[in-house]
Amino acid sequence: MSKSVLDVRDVQKSFGAVTAARDISVTVPEGAVYSLIGSNGAGKTTFVNMVTGYIKPDSGTIRFGDRNIVGLAPRQITRMGIHRSFQIAQLCNELTVEENMLVADAIHAKTGASFLRRAHQPEARDRAMATLERFNIAEHRHRLVPELSGGVKKLLDIAMAMAGDTQIMMLDEPTSGVAADEKFPIMDLVMDALRSAGVTVIFVEHDMDIVTRYSERVLAFYDGRIIADDAPDEVLSDPEVQRYVTGAPA
Ligand SMILES: Nc1ncnc2c1ncn2[C@@H]1O[C@H](COP(=O)(O)OP(=O)(O)OP(=O)(O)O)[C@@H](O)[C@H]1O
């Protein structure tokens, strides 16, 4: 069995009277693909925010490799290798695809060189092109963001989140904003690119076809708790999950 890359133990988080995380414990093996499901307000984003340092748990531990990362700033956690993409793509409209990628690369670079110098280094351009090629969007490199389809924007956003040394990628609804007929092709590309880079993937998703097709394991959230943690078929046929999450038999 692969070693664990992320180990969350007994994590709790409340916002006033609302408990958004209750006794959350989960171990994610290196290279696994996990999806997080649950209705609105179930606690999925709170989980992602705690792992990425945007929210500090009230108690519990989050171990990344052999280090407890609770209390570290998002920037420190990103530099350690836990990256994320948001539901709404974080792109700069005034720049081309390649320029956006160069900005992401310069932000993630660990060298002491100035931001602009880093963006102009030939190695940076090579790295940017390699990532764009991995996500099959190199042909769009000279186009400005507003000219791109929802699918290409999504691919660019995830490609940018991959800049630097990524060990865990957390994706918030990777197919939101993507046309229905583009969803599977986009997910095929994203998952192939992440798997070939050996990255562990944790993604929030409401579309059960995507969950079934792309995740190896599913965490079902309800009222701040994980009510199921198993293979997709097991989770989606669980009566509690059908009652509180999917609302229908799988
Ligand atoms: N910063 C915050 N301040 C106050 N309450 C919050 C905050 N973040 C989350 N909550 C509350 O915590 C609970 C869990 O929210 P969370 O965003 O984690 O749910 P979710 O499963 O991601 O929902 P959605 O699918 O709508 O994004 C909700 O009741 C939410 O209102």
Description:
- It comes from Seohaeicola saemankumensis.
- Residues 6-248 form the ABC transporter domain.
- GO terms for molecular function: ATP binding.
- It holds the Pfam family ABC_tran.
- Keywords: ATP-binding, Nucleotide-binding, Transport.
- The chain has 250 residues and is of the alpha/beta class.
- Helix content is 37%, strand content 25%.
- The chain is built from 10 helices and 10 strands.
- The strands form 2 sheets. A 6-stranded mixed beta sheet has the order 6-7-8-3-9-10, sandwiched between helices.
- The longest helix is centred in the C-terminal third of the chain and has 14 residues, at 183-196.
- It starts with a strand and ends with a helix.
- The structure holds adenosine-5'-triphosphate.
- Residues 15, 18, 20, 38, 40-46, 221 line the site of adenosine-5'-triphosphate (ATP).
